[in-house]
Design goal:
This protein is of the alpha/beta class. The chain is built from 14 helices and eight strands. Strands 1-2-3-4-5-6-7-8 form an eight-stranded parallel beta barrel, surrounded by four helices. Strand 4, helix 6 and strand 5 form a beta-alpha-beta unit. Helix 5 packs across helix 6 and helix 11 crosses helix 13. The chain is globular and about 60 Å long. It binds phosphoenolpyruvate and magnesium ion. The site of phosphoenolpyruvate (PEP) has 10 residues, from strand 2 and helix 9.
Length: 324
Amino acid sequence: RKRQDSAMAALTAVTADGRKVQLAANVGSPADMPAALAQGAEGVGLFRSEFLFMGRDVPPTEEEQFAAYKEVAEQCGGQLCVIRTMDIGGDKPLHYLNISKEENPFLGWRAIRISLERPDLFMPQLKAILRAGVYGKVAIMLPMVISAAEIRSARQWVQKAAGELAQEGKRFAAAVPLGIMVETPAAAVIARDLASECDFFSIGTNDLVQYTLAVDRGNQAVGALYSHFHPAVLRLIAGVAKAGHDQGIWVGMCGEMAGDPLAAPLLTAMGFDELSMSAPSIPRVKEVIRKIRLEESRELLDKALALTDAGDVRALMQEFNSPV
Ligand code: PEP
Ligand code: MG
């Protein structure tokens, strides 16, 4: 298997009839890069920057963040490195932020909501990302977006960050793409409107499934209900992919579904440009994509979208993946 994986690392993820899908890696720090590259990752589709903020008593400085982003961007070797601004709150609390106790942290003060209210945290992060853009291709990705207004205010902060860097005489990349995670049902439903405000979408299925099905992603008691094959989820993400493409932006996915070989034919049929996953999943997903034909995957998608039960969709995909 290991030998097969390293052989697979050198190949691209292209369907039997020529449709290319970019397979990128999800990382949490520069230390994750060697494993990602060994599996043949084409860039980073999700750098979970919040890990830089955790396990310490004060937030990381602009310099500390710059060093980490620069290292990952450089290691991407000309491929895109998508840096998500900090996704704190929810399941990732930070004692030094003094988030007051919340009944429902997953519905509370988290991610972009914190960033937009705390420029003392947001600005150093944005400045660090823009500076890293000198050393590789970087993009900024906003977590937990629910409105166009959030994207517009974030963009204003990005412009302000660029202005300050110019004044300080620091080198930075002027044109860094700004995209969003589509991980709330609200964002998925208004995807068409959000697409005209940003440069790319990446669907975060871990949260999108949780919020769409009202099933806590970490609660074992409802674990059996948690499925990215639920028709509500499938129809939402198909709509997001179409909305993004209709508006001319690229659409990726960085939740766990992107690394599920069973889902790969459906995502290929929906036209995903990029799938970002934990490094060990890359060879398996690539293997599936290299076997299918686009036309055949579209027939499968039509069948899947007509089903009414998550279990039936999974069974359909299992049957397809293991022909006897
Ligand atoms: C997601 O929600 O799918 C995602 C990729 O982000 P996280 O798992 O960090 O919440
Ligand atoms: Mg998320």
